[in-house]
Amino acid sequence: MVRPSPVRPSPLDDPHFAEFAWARYFRLMRWMMLFTACVVAVCLAYLHAVVGEAPIHLYIAATLGIGFTMMLMAALMGLVFLSSGTGHDEAIDNTLDAHIDAWRD
After folding, report:
1. How many whole angstroms separate alpha carbon 5 and alpha carbon 38?
2. How many domains does the chain have?
3. How far apart, in whole angstroms, are the C-alpha atoms of residue 76 and residue 79?
């Protein structure tokens, strides 16, 4: 018979540790926002050098597309780093492997 392992508390349940972890996440996001603004500026300068005079809608679409894509990537990767770096991943109760082994026996 497979017995579930006891539930381990997540380190993010501690308010002080969670505050530190989220502050680190938002600091990462601020740096990524600055980096994204620099990348967008360089891309728009390159676009203007290659295309020349173009409708403003092209520059707006390029700015939104590049900016949204980079910030979404930063947010999702930041959450991965937050989850892994705080030990939250190890606190998850994964009994699926035990059930699969019991089923195979």
Report:
1. 48
2. 1
3. 5
